[in-house]
Amino acid sequence: MGYTHFSHLSGINGLAVGKKGSEKVIADALGRMYLNFEPGNQFYVDSGSGSSSNDGLTWATALATIDQANNKCTANNADVIWVAPGHTETITGTDITMDIAGVTVVGLGKGSLMPQIKHNHADAEVSVAADNVTWMNIRHSADVTLVKVAIEIEDGVDYCTVKGCVFDVVATTTDEFLVSVRTNDASNFALIEDNDFDMGLGGAVAAVSFTKDTDGTVVRGNRIQGDYSTACIEGITTASTKVLIEGNLLINGSATDLGTEPCIQLLTASTGTIRDNDCVCNLATMVAAVVADACMLFRNYYNEDVQGTGTILGVASADG
Fold first, then answer.
1. Does a structural domain hold residue 3?
2. Domain holding 98: CATH number?
3. Nearest Cα to 53, choosing from 68, 74, 67?
C-alpha cells in the first residue's frame, strides 16, 4: 500500500494538526488519512451520503452521525473519527456521547464547510464521558434560546481536548449557549485551545466554566466575545487548582456596548497562572477585569476604549 506523508494537515481543508511536527499524518492510495504511524481504527462520517447501516470504514461507506462512529470505536486504541466537510447534525439532547476513551474526532473543512452541530433544545449537548477524548474543528451553533451547555466534560473525566472549534448562534440576540465548554467535578487536565466563541449580545453566562474543581486545566489562544453575565471565563462552586489561562482575547460585550462584568472571574482561592490575555470590558477599576485572588498574573492588558492600546493590569511586584 502506497503512502503519502504529511507533517501536518495545513494543506487539507486548512486544518492544522500536529503542532511543532509532533504528530504525523499519512494517506493511503484510497485517500484514507491516519494520525501518527501506528493508527488505530479509522471511521468516516458524512451526513450527505452516510447511513447508520454502513460500516464507516471508508468515505464510500460513511456513517451518518458522529455518535454512530463513536459506538464502533475501541477504548484506548487511538481510534480516529473523520467528519466530512459540510457535515451537519441537529441534536436535541445528549445525542452525541463520547464515552470511549482515547477517541479523536477531527472535522474536515473550514469556513462554511466546517462540520456543524446545531443544538436545538435547552438540553442539547455533546457529552464527553471518557478520558483522553480530542474534539477538533467542529462548529457548534445554538439553535434555540438558553441552551445550557455545548460541550460538557463530565465528572472525573481527564485530558479532554477541545481545539479549533467555533461556538456561535443561529439567531443573534435570541439564541445562545449559557456555557459553551464546561468542566465538572474533578474533570482535570482539559485543554481548551484555539477556539472561537461568539455569543453576540445573547444572554450567555460564560464561554468557559470551571463549574466545580478542576486541576491543571489550560485555556489558551481562544477568541471569546459575548455579553457574558458572569465572565468570559468563570470558576464557580469549588476552587480550582493550577489552571493556566493564557493568550486569549476576551471581550465582554461588543465594541459599541461593552459589558460591566469581568473577563475572568474565578472562585476565591483558585490557584494557577493567568498571563498574556487581552481583556476588554467596562468596569469602574481595571483590576476588576480579572478576579482571581490566588493566581499569578503576568502581562494581562485591559482596554475599554476602542481607540486605546490597553493598560497592563495589576501593580508591579516590589523588590526583595
1. no
2. 2.160.20.10
3. 68
Pick 201 or 49 by higher pLDDT: 49
Strand 161-163 with 249-254, pairing: unpaired
Side chain identity at 191, as an amino acid letter? L
pLDDT digits (tens, 9 = 90+) for 71-96: 999 999 999 999 999 999 999 999 99
Please indicate, yes or no, if residue 97 is contained in any of the structural domains: yes
Specify the long-range contacts of residues 296-301, CB closer than 8 Å, at least 24 apart: 296/272, 297/273, 298/273, 298/274, 299/275, 300/274, 300/275, 300/276, 301/277
Please give the order of strands across the beta sheet that includes 25-27: 4-6, 25-27, 33-35
Task: Give, in order, the Cα–Cα distances in Å from 189 to each of 133, 160, 166, 176, 197.
Answer: 12, 7, 21, 26, 21
For residue 190, pLDDT over 50 is answered with yes
Q: For the chain, what is the domain count? A: 1
Angstrom distance (rounded) from CA 131 to CA 186: 12
Type of residue at 101: A
Q: Report the distance separating Cα 84 and Cα 69, nearest Å.
A: 13
Confidence band, pLDDT 50/70/90 cuts, at residue 29? low
pLDDT digits (tens, 9 = 90+) for 101-121: 999 999 999 999 999 999 999
- State the Cα angle at 267 between 263 and 272, rounded to 5°: 80
Quote the DSSP letter at residue 266: P
